[in-house]
Amino acid sequence: MITRPPPEGREALTRDVRATIRDVPDFPKPGIVFKDITPILSAPLLFTRVTDSIAVAAMALQVSHVVGIESRGFIFAAPVAQKLGVGLVPVRKPGKLPHRVVREEYALEYGTDALEMHEDALGVGARVLVVDDVLATGGTAAATRRLVERAGGVVAAFSFVVDLTFLHGRQQLAGSSIDTIVEY
Ligand code: AMP
């Protein structure tokens, strides 16, 4: 349940999130500017405003599950699932989930990586909100959409705190609704 009144307009939230996110140059490797969301987490009211806003935007979608992407996605997905009153499903790096999984590989700049989800986590007819902190190239989110579909569900929408629009991640997610708070 959302215990606070309906949220302010997005403009004020966008301004405050943008002012709070910390740019860390050359992390995890040279040339990458890492968008560090941890200052949001240590500002309790702002953290609540962010997750309230994600949940309110998703309310009309009637989702049955929230899927969080390892690992910063979990932090935002968990309170959103509780506010919406639906289950939380983790999508994890290979080898972390104990039960039987579905697995999807995706391309990195060099090589591939993979994500896994418990094969029985959703069930046929599930309507899913996928949550992560940052949309970059979209490979992670697109692989997550394939996992959801293989597990019998559909992605009703994606929600990201940050969209690095110059990496064109939205192109990988064509056909899905996408909600973001701050765009760079
Ligand atoms: P991508 O698959 O390229 O969209 O990458 C998305 C994933 O990588 C997300 O889980 C993000 O947490 C992380 N990520 C990618 N680029 C950045 C960045 N510049 N700052 C922070 N996190 C990032």
What secondary-structure arrangement, pairings included, does this model have?
Blueprint: H1 10-20, E1 22-25, E2 33-36, H2 38-41, H3 44-58, E3 65-69, H4 72-84, E4 87-91, E5 101-107, E6 112-118, E7 127-135, H5 139-150, E8 154-163, H6 169-172, E9 177-183
Parallel strand pairs: 3-4, 3-7, 7-8, 8-9
Antiparallel strand pairs: 1-2, 5-6
Helix pairs in contact: 1-3, 3-4
The chain binds adenosine monophosphate (AMP).
Bound molecules: adenosine monophosphate
Biggest sheet details: 5 strands, parallel
The ordered H/E elements are HEEHHEHEEEEHEHE
CATH class of one domain: Alpha Beta
CATH topology of one domain: Rossmann fold
Radius of gyration: 16 Å
Overall mean confidence score, pLDDT? 95
Name the shape in a single word.
globular
Structural class: alpha/beta
Strand order of the largest sheet: 4-3-7-8-9
Q: What's the tally of helices?
A: 6
The end-to-end span amounts to 31 Å
The CATH architecture of one domain: 3-Layer(aba) Sandwich
Specify the helix fraction band. 25-40%
Total strand segments: 9
Strand percentage lies at 25-35%
Unreliable spans: none
